[in-house]
Amino acid sequence: PCRIRALRQSPWAQRRMAQKKYLQAKLTQFLREDKIQLWKPPYTDENKDVGLALKDLASRYSNKLGCCENEVEKIIEEIRCKAIERGTGNENYKTTGIATIEVFLPSRLKKDKKNVLETRLHISGRDLRSKIAETFGFQENYIKIVINKKLLQLGKSLQEQGVTHNVKAMVLELKQSEEDVRKTSQEEEEKQNEADLKEKQIQRTKKGLEILAKRAEMVVDPETTPYLDIANQTGRSIRIPPSQKKALMLAMGYHEKGRAFLKRKEYGIALPCLLDADRYFCECGRELLDTVDNYAVLQLDIVWCYFRLEQLECLDDAEKKLGLAQKCLKNCYGENHQRLVHIKGNCGKEKVLFLRLYLLQGIRNYHSGNGEEAREYLDKARLLFKELHIDPSKVHSLMQLGFTPQEARLALRACDGNVDHAAIHISNRREELAQIRREEKEKKRRRMENINSLKGMGYSARAARQALHQAGGNLDEALKILLGNPHMWWLNDSAPDASSPHESPSQKGIDQLVYMGFDAAVAEAALRVFRGNVQLAAQTLAHHGGSLPPDLQLPEEDVSSTPSTSPSDSAGTSSASTDEDMDTEAVNEILEDIPEHEEDYLDSTLEDEEIIIAEYLSYVENIRSATD
């Protein structure tokens, strides 16, 4: 984790900042409702200076809010100045084509002012990153830019990426600024190495997930090749339409990686993974997204990440994402969770998601100036917290029985805190999973037997796996597929072409085929194609009426060719081995972050939530006391 020594605001300063944000949102709301245009007379004169009418407006609104008039006047003046600045920027964009971008800096660099950057939109993402780094004092290679909830692509122009005038850009920092590094020069090299590692980690994540997603589309040997599988709520593998499988694999993979960073509180690295997950989920069908809770959990994780980065104002559609999460959870779990109870027998664990949902809705409403709505959601979150809070002694009791802390928390919530029932719940769940594993193991055993049967007939393991996959595991059907598609024999090798050496078949092999009734010339040609494999040659000739299909017949010049060994045959072995090692490393990093427990996403100590609920309820109380 990045060891940036950011200054922590005092609770009093945090409360003041929260109160100011609330007042800004509330006053903006009033101005919109009253259709007041602060950038026009009588609130702004011809020189764009403040008009006398603004003081009367501040007096009216301060009485309405029960707040200090001077403070309200100051905030209204800030809103007026921003409106004028925005209007000037709009005029400038119309006449010159120079766009204004509002830049949201990391929380440790936040100042009580708006940060803007002017640029033309034909420049590349890389050029914009350079401008931001130069203007605000970052090292260019150690920041990432998020615009419109997407990572800025360096090689494309801003126009190509949908960047427009007045857009918001959020800076994610992988490393401290040069100035801060100089202050602690003895740590400079260490911190630069950390930033390098984080960037490489992000790239390895992408590579590892691409490899695993590709394997999901192939037929691999599960005994030797790690791959990802998609399971339902009970832990059983499920079939996904091929058209959606890769996108879903990538979406779920990026989500799990992002969640792993969230657990480590590395929010700056978590967000790019979560946004990538959102992008791939959107490639899946709407019907699929409405029937699984993964998409709802992702929306909650994205909003939570923005909140923890103190950049909620940069997420314009936080309300939409939370509404989407709520709708998706309702579709998945049913009204009052009845569908969930039918499937699992309880809904205690899933209530953690609703606690997070209500908390984020409360926070969003507070920052939007909706005090009463904020209180309503925060009270719901507080009540759920009381229901879901677990006595540590009960967790300890279950751990004494050999269960993990995670199993204990999940089971206690599922069983309303009853330790005995929780112990039985865990034991039953373990047995269910063990039974599923036994069934999966038996399926693998039968599959390997079928593969070995086909290998015994001369087919490669890869061809056998592919045929069995197409045949739904039926050995007889797989054999028909192989006989009907002799090219599948080449799945384990390069396809036959003029550059491939074909050894002259042995006379003994030709004689065997002739003895079976095949023409000698055809027998020789078949043995050349199948590299001396008499069994495969016989099966193929028999299936095709004693002749080779045209697409398997070798060119004339290839028949007379003799095997040759090229000095370059072994060239690149070392680099290929290195690439393979890097692929293995990338895949293993992904697999390390895939949780073993299928309900890991429901497990939370709720320690952060407890603190934040109390914090925001105090802000809401402060509003009430100010207006009483």
UniProtKB/TrEMBL annotation:
The lineage of its organism: Eukaryota, Metazoa, Chordata, Craniata, Vertebrata. InterPro entries: NUB1, NUB1_ubiquitin-like_dom, SASH1/NUB1_homeodomain, TPR-like_helical_dom_sf, UBA, UBA-like_sf, Ubiquitin-like_domsf. It comes from Cavia porcellus. PANTHER family: NEDD8 ULTIMATE BUSTER 1 (PTHR12948:SF3), NEDD8 ULTIMATE BUSTER-1 BS4 PROTEIN (PTHR12948). Residues 178-199, 546-603 are annotated as: Disordered. One of its GO terms (biological process) is response to type II interferon. Residues 578-603 have a biased composition (Acidic residues). This is NEDD8 ultimate buster 1. Keywords: Coiled coil, Nucleus, Repeat. The keyword Amino-acid biosynthesis does not apply. PROSITE patterns: UBA (PS50030). GO terms for cellular component: cytosol; Lewy body; nucleolus; nucleoplasm. Residues 560-577 have a biased composition (Low complexity). Its main location: nucleus. The gene is NUB1. It is found in: Nucleus. Pfam families: SASH1_Homeodomain, UBA, Ubiquitin_5. Residues 389-429, 439-485, 504-544 form the UBA domain.
